[in-house]
Amino acid sequence: MERRFACTACGKCCFGWLPLTLDDALAHAGRFPLAVVWTPVKPASRAFATTARIGLTVRLADRKQVAVRIAPTAYLPPSMACPELKPDGLCAIHADKPSRCRTMPFFPYRAESDQADLLLPRSGWACEVGASAPVVYRDKAVVERGDFDREHEALLGQTPVLKAYGEALLGSVPGLPDALARAAAKPGGGHVALGFASLLRRLNPDNRNSHAEAQLTVLAAVSARVSDPDYARNYADWTWELERLLGR
Ligand code: SF4
Ligand code: SF4
């Protein structure tokens, strides 16, 4: 089985959430409004084994086990464009864009053998998948694998940090285990989004304040443009948490 794919740079996939490696989140803290998104994945899911390897395994109150993907994420409503998307559909930071954007549409949060459906463009996307596009996936393996391998290695490398963060929060944030259980029970899957300060305060203190200051500026800018009340409320809460982190 072969799949062909080429990006025509239409910019249509540059909207809404963008999961980031930890290094990319910190490097772009002055560009994207960041959250830490926890996504429970059930054992029956094809993504369970990979999620358990790069994230956490949690036993919920009902004794059911889930794997939890913990992803620093550029957190924008689905209708809102990435702040770096230019009017002509091109990326303003092409040479410096996050590894997630380089690996698209492959997604190393899932097994390499389970990527074929990701190469089918969604409605409105102008990806080229016909005979003129190169073969990018053959026999359940990525053909040009540099970007895929780099993102995958980054996810594996950051696992100890995110695992320690996840275990610490599950033991200290009242209501988080129940929120995860509710997210796991949602048809189609749910998530829990926490402010980036929850992670920032547990990282090496070098540059912590500058990352927090950068986030405050980004959150102020995006709050002025957002109309979705849930996102507006989250941005306000996360601004308050960052102010607390900075001792204000
Ligand atoms: S950084 Fe560039 S490629 Fe990535 S989502 Fe934003 S505009 Fe698109
Ligand atoms: S939707 Fe497809 S063609 Fe458009 S920017 Fe994204 S990957 Fe490229």
Features:
3-stranded antiparallel β-sheet, 248 residues, alpha+beta, 5-stranded antiparallel β-sheet
Summary?
This protein is α+β, with helices and mostly antiparallel strands and 248 residues long. 37% of the residues lie in helices and 15% in strands.
Task: Summarize the helices and strands and which ones pair or pack.
Layout: E1 2-4, E2 18-19, H1 22-27, E3 34-41, H2 48-54, E4 56-59, E5 65-74, H3 99-103, E6 135-138, E7 141-142, H4 146-172, H5 176-185, E8 192-195, H6 197-200, H7 208-223, H8 229-245
Antiparallel strand pairs: 1-6, 2-5, 3-5, 3-8, 4-5, 6-7
The site of one iron/sulfur cluster has 13 residues, from loops.
Written account of the structure:
- By secondary structure, the protein is an alpha+beta fold.
- The chain has one domain (2-206).
- 37% of the residues lie in helices and 15% in strands.
- The chain has helices at 22-27, 48-54, 99-103, 146-172, 176-185, 197-200, 208-223, 229-245, and strands at 2-4, 18-19, 34-41, 56-59, 65-74, 135-138, 141-142, 192-195.
- The strands form 2 sheets. Strands 2, 3, 4, 5 and 8 form a 5-stranded antiparallel beta sheet that branches.
- Helix 7 (208-223) packs antiparallel against helix 8 (229-245).
- The termini are far apart.
- Bound molecules: iron/sulfur cluster (SF4) (2 copies).
- The site of one iron/sulfur cluster (SF4) has 13 residues, from loops.
- Residues 14, 18, 82, 84-85, 91, 93, 97, 101 line the site of one iron/sulfur cluster (SF4).
